[in-house]
Amino acid sequence: MMSYPEELLGLQNADGGWSYHRGGSWTEPTCYAVLALAASGMGDAPQVRNGAQWLRRCQRPDGGLAPRQSVVESTWLTALALLLPPALAAGSVDRKRAAEWVLAQSGRESGWVNRLRLWMLGVQTEVEVQFDGWPWYPGAAAWVGPTALSILALTKYGRQDHGADEKGRVAEGRAYLLARRCRDGGWNHGSTKALGYDSDSYPETTGLALLALAGSEGDEISQGIARGEQHLAGCRSSEAANWLRLGLMAHGRRPVAPALKPAHGTTMEAALAALADAAQQGRNLFLET
Fold it and tell me: 123: domain CATH number?
């Protein structure tokens, strides 16, 4: 049976990028495939460098990255490119401009115009204090997924390049995640209530939030870890299970991987499995340089 890195190499397109399953290349699966192969010790392989060079063609004049070469607008995917090892920077994306783009983004609800509009309408916000998260697309509301990945990206970039500009922004992002915890201790995509009822957390977003909150302590984190362990015990999704493994390992846990194999042979499934296995061996590229 092929290993996950071997499977990823077999899924690479001729142009150097990766698709979600079959077809044209996209930025998200390419970033995860390159990161997973690098975490598996294949950072010097020509296929990995070809993937990093493919990403350069998705960087836009504003410094951000688009979902694929045919798309004009930069999106949250820019954060993923900052997670790649700096050794792959030659011939790949301009990391400084990408970091500046990520730092410039915030959720629509963070702006004073939107807050004034809500006050004038008499709308009560979900939490008393609004913290600054990140949206999927510029000008949209903030969500847990892009906020967690932007925190990881800027934290890693700051360690590599000794920058200080990102520290306050990362702290705001972490506060956003803690404010968006569900009542059961975990996280969903961002709304703690729906139609007046408490929302339940999801496995994949709980794992991702825990990963972004690595190094944090307190009762809120302990409750999140406990909920993550509960999710993992009953998880039936390969992607979700591996996000949970990554998140729990970031807090010193040694979770037992469930007997789940990627069901659909997708790039994302193989990449996340490879990343979680590498972290189990002591190399978590979400948290290391």
Answer: 1.50.10.20
